[in-house]
Amino acid sequence: MDVSDTPPETPKPDAARAPAARPPFKLDRRVLAGAIVVLAALLVIGVLVYLNARSGRDLANGAPDEQAQVDEEWPGLGDQNRLHVRPLTMPRPRPTPGMLASILSGYADAEFTIGADGKAGNIRIVRESAPDIGYGAEARRMIAAATWPTDWRGRSAPFDASYRVIFPPGRGPSEIEPLAIASPNLTPEIMALRRDVAVTLLVHVTPEGLVDSARVIDQDVESSAAAAEAMRVALGARYPANGAGYETQLVVRFNVTAAQTAEGELPRGPSVSYADVPFSQRPSASDYSRYYPRRARYNNIDGRVTLACIVQRNLRLDCSVAEENPPGQGFGEAALRIARRFRAQSQFPDGRSTVGAQVSMPMAFRAAE
């Protein structure tokens, strides 16, 4: 076999010489987390270095004092801003009779202008804790006589200022006994307190001995009903006349526990006449005719009865015979039957409850009618 006749072999690629394929690039998570931590640490260190350098510059320049900070924060120094200024000197108050009579402390607020001489001018009283006692007039005198600073919180005189003059309590008014005074009504609202109540008032008496004004200055139980009833009692009191008028202290006491000895007992209200009670229902003439005693009518006998009644919670009357004339003719029983036809309204015209009101009820029987 001739070698030249054999076809040449195709050379095979060398596997060792073939280039290797590159794997995809992957970032290690641990390396990334470490880089973030390093950057954060560098940022914190830079902030601390900056703040430390700035603090050093502030200390070197000196911090502003407290007064400068207050003045810097003061919301403007225009004429519309009034300063509550403390005086350098101020005289003692001269208490008026009204201030001596008061058992409470008082005050007066004033606005004025402080001049370059440290004196107050253009004094105006803007508020008093109680009128007609003298707080405002005495505060005006004291402020005018006081010495005031000419520089206050960055403002130099003249400038507008304000000040509150506080007055100490007085000795309290003398307690003058009234010549006449009504007993307080124990209304359902007051009875519901289930305890005794005392209301203290300061009353102003006219030269004629009448009470023209009163105000509550203390009460041991907060009750608007007790305060209103005490005011009514005080305004109706009569005092000795002295030709000049005066103020006195009055204590109105509500003896609730004595009136309410049993649970649910009806409160006792005022003693009133038949004409004072507002009725929503009254007996008719036919009722008088129906209940007229037969024997008295047959004998043509007239009769008169007075009943003592109390308005119940259902606004009916609970009555008993107080007087009967002539006795023994049946007029008392007839009057009690007729009284069942009455119905009272829930309130008197002045707003007081009618429940518990004690009513004197006269009834006349005439055979000729």
Radius of gyration: 48 Å
Enter the CATH topology name of the domain at 271-365: TolA/TonB C-terminal domain
Order of strands across the biggest sheet? 1-6-2-3
Number of strands: 15
Strand content: 25-35%
Q: Helix fraction?
A: 25-40%
Shape: elongated
Specify the CATH homologous superfamily of the domain at 271-365.
TonB
Report low-confidence residues grouped into runs of 5 or more: 14-18, 55-80
Number of H- or I-type helical stretches: 10
Which CATH class of the domain at 271-365 applies here? Alpha Beta
Kindly report how far apart the N and C termini lie. 178 Å
Order of helices and strands: HHEHEEHEEEHEEHEHEEHHEEHEE
Secondary-structure blueprint:
Layout (H helix, E strand, L loop, with lengths): L28 H33 L4 H8 L9 E2 L12 H5 L4 E9 L5 E9 L6 H11 L5 E2 L2 E2 L2 E9 L20 H4 L5 E9 L5 E9 L4 H12 L10 E9 L1 H4 L11 E3 L5 E3 L3 H7 L2 H5 L4 E9 L5 E9 L5 H9 L3 E2 L13 E8 L4
